[in-house]
Design a protein that fits this description.
about 10% strand, three-stranded antiparallel beta sheet, globular, 3 strands, alpha+beta
Length: about 110
C-alpha cells in the first residue's frame, strides 16, 4: 500500500481509496478478492466489506467463474467518469500537508 497521502486518500476512507485506486486506474482489469487483498495490503475482510459496499451502490460489478469472484469498475455507472478522473489525477497533486494531529507517527 502507498505510504504517501494522495487526494484520493483524503476524500475517502483509506481502504475504500485503495480499492477505488486499484479498480478505477485500469477499469478494464478484472481482479479477484485475494488479488485485491495482496495488491492493497488490506485484510481480506476489509476488502470484502469495501467490495460489498461498492457493489451495492453499483460502482463495481462482480461475477464468478466458479472458483473466484471477480470485480471491476462499472463503466456504465453515472459516476464512473468522475471517479476515474479523481483516481487518475490524485497522484498528480503534490502531497498535502496534514495538520499535526492528523500526521502518522513514524515507528522505528
Amino acid at each position: 500500500m502507498k505510504t504517501r497521502f494522495e487526494v484520493l486518500d483524503l476524500l475517502f476512507p483509506k481502504a475504500r481509496a485503495e480499492i477505488l485506486r486499484l479498480l478505477f486506474s485500469n477499469p478494464k482489469a478484472q481482479r479477484y478478492v485475494r488479488e485485491l487483498m495482496l495488491m492493497s495490503g488490506l485484510a481480506l475482510r476489509t476488502v470484502q466489506e469495501e467490495l460489498a459496499t461498492l457493489t451495492m451502490i453499483g460502482l463495481v460489478k462482480s461475477w464468478s467463474n466458479g472458483y473466484h469472484r471477480f470485480y471491476r469498475a462499472n463503466r456504465d455507472h453515472p459516476l464512473f467518469s468522475n471517479l476515474r478522473g479523481i483516481v487518475q489525477t490524485s497522484a498528480c497533486f503534490p502531497r498535502p500537508k496534514l495538520p499535526a494531529h492528523r500526521r502518522q507517527r513514524v515507528q522505528s
